[in-house]
Design brief:
There is one protein chain. By secondary structure, this protein is an alpha+beta fold. The chain has a single domain (about 5-145, about 200-210), classed as 3-Layer(aba) Sandwich (Aminopeptidase), CATH 3.40.630. It has seven helices and nine strands; from the N terminus they run H-E-E-H-H-E-E-H-E-H-E-H-E-E-E-H. Helix 2 packs across helix 3 and helix 5 (about 125-140) packs across helix 6 (about 155-165). The radius of gyration is 17 Å and the shape is globular.
Length: about 210
């Protein structure tokens, strides 16, 4: 009998690194992820995201979270796709780690993005989950490069990138909240500069490779 992970193999993907696990998000997980985000992702006076999704009324965050991830599933194709994986530590859901790209079969590059519930920040989880995702795309999806970015007033994110081995790759000016400009640092990682963390174990990589056309 077919199951949903046969139809959409991202739901069958599991990446483990010690006590940390990245895996595809089921609808039940999305409900829990929305509740986690309602508890806070950053101080309200700051905005680390290109799209200020955390500015929506707190009661709307669970639905907005689910709609975003449903859209990611609906738009997934070899031409443009995003892996949006839940992050668990010792069995507790703590955040989300993503890798998004377009024209991947030609470019072999994509951008990482992530968030953690505010109570889980500052303990090294952000570095570990980024290392696990980068190890996966380099070792199992044949990536040649991984990019990231952060606003200059988000030193914690920039510090994680530097720990993992990303090199600074230019500053640009971007709109953040309505009417607000912020300077943004681009970052670039290659297999040669990658600072690995705990070894990863992976389930479901072959099906994801087929899904994206590898």
């Amino acid at each position: 009998m077919s199951v949903i992970s046969d139809v959409y193999p991202v739901l069958g993907l599991r990446i483990t690194a010690g006590s940390l696990e990245l895996r595809g998000l089921t609808d039940g997980d999305l409900a829990a992820l929305g509740v986690l985000a309602q508890g806070g992702v950053h101080p309200p006076e700051r905005m680390p995201f290109y799209h200020p999704w955390t500015d929506m009324p707190v009661e709307q965050i669970p639905l907005g979270m689910a709609q975003y991830h449903w859209g990611v599933r609906a738009r997934f194709s070899p031409a443009a796709w995003s892996l949006e994986l839940g992050v668990w530590v010792d069995g507790e859901l703590v955040g989300c780690q993503g890798f998004g790209t377009s024209d991947y079969l030609v470019t072999r590059t994509g951008e990482t993005g992530s968030w953690l519930g505010i109570e889980h920040q500052g303990s090294g989880i952000g570095t570990r989950m980024r290392q696990a995702m980068c190890a996966f795309v380099f070792d199992h999806l044949d990536a040649d490069e991984v990019t990231s970015g952060a606003f200059l007033d988000n030193p914690a994110s920039i510090a994680v990138s530097h720990k993992v081995g990303y090199a600074d790759n230019g500053i640009s000016r971007k709109k953040r909240r309505d009417g607000e400009m912020a300077e943004h640092l681009a970052l670039r990682l290659t297999p040669e500069t990658f600072v690995r963390g705990e070894p990863i174990e992976v389930e479901g990589a072959a099906a994801v490779r087929r899904l994206i056309g590898l």
